[in-house]
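Workshop exercise sheet. Pairs work together: one partner reads the sequence aloud, the other fills in the structure field after running the prediction. Swap roles for the next sheet.
Pair: D.N. / O.F.
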Amino acid sequence: MKAALPKIVRRINALRTQVAAWRASGETVALVPTMGALHDGHLALVEEVQKRAGRVVVSIFVNPAQFGPNEDLARYPRDERGDTAKLARLGTDLVYAPSPAEIYPTGFASKVLVNGPAKAGLEDKYRPDHFAGVATVVAKLLIQCQPDIAIFGEKDYQQLMVIRRMAIDLDLPVRIVGGATRREKDGLAMSSRNIYLAASERATAPLLNAALHEAGGRIAEGGDPAKAAAAARRALTRAGFRVDYVAARNADTLAALTAPREEPIRLLAAAWLGRTRLIDNIAVKKASRKKAGA
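Structure field:
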C-alpha cells in the first residue's frame, strides 16, 4: 500500500496552527531543516528525531541568503515531489515548504550576525556571507516552528557549531542536536551536490575522506596536527583536488589547537573537484590520543 504523502504547508500561520494543535495535545515537536533534494543522510536525520519527539516537521527551503553571488543557487537541485515521497515512507508528519517571499517578505531588512565558530577561518574564509545567511534563516525557522528539538547533520560541522552558539546566545528554547554523517559505501559523505560530479570525479571523490582518516591516524599516534593536515592537503592536490583547507581544530570551539594532546580534535576539509565543492570532517579518536601521549 502506497504511503500517504505528508501534509504540506507553505505559510507561517498554517505551520504555527498545526504545531499549536500538537502542543495542546501534549506532544513534542522536532524540526529537520533542509534545502530539499533529500538523500539518505537527510532521511537518517528524520529517523533520528522520530526517536526523540512525537511529531516531526521537515522544512524544505533553498535559502538564497546563504549563497554567494557566483555560487549555485540557480542550479541547486530541487525535487519537492520526490522529497515528499521519500518523507511519506518515513511517516513524516508535516512538510513546511515556504516561498522566498514568505521567508523574506517585501521590506525585510534584518540579519543575524554571528561570531565565535562562524569566524574560524574555515568556510567563512571562502564564503564570507554564508553563515549570516544560514543563521538568519535558521533563526526564523526556529521561531516560526518553535520546536523542542532541531537536528543538523555533522557533515556541515562548522554550521552545526554556529547554530548551537546562536541558539544559546539568543535564548532560543530549543535543543540543537547533531546527526552523524551518512556516507556512501566508498566513504564519500552524502550531499545533494554530489550529483554535480562527473563519473571520473565521483571515482576520485572518496579520497577526501581517505586523506582525513590518514591525517587523523597520524595525529592519534602522536603526530603533529599541523603537519598531518599539510600532508593531507598535498595528497589531495596530487589526486587532482583544488584544496580550500584541511585543518585540525578544537572540536568544541573550532579554535586553533593550543594543547593537542589534551583537546578534542576535529579534522575539517573543503576541496573542489572540477565545478563541485566537497566538504567533510572527522573526529580524531580521544582514546587514541591519550594512548599516544601516555
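Discussion prompt: The first helix runs from residue 12 to 24. What would you look at next?
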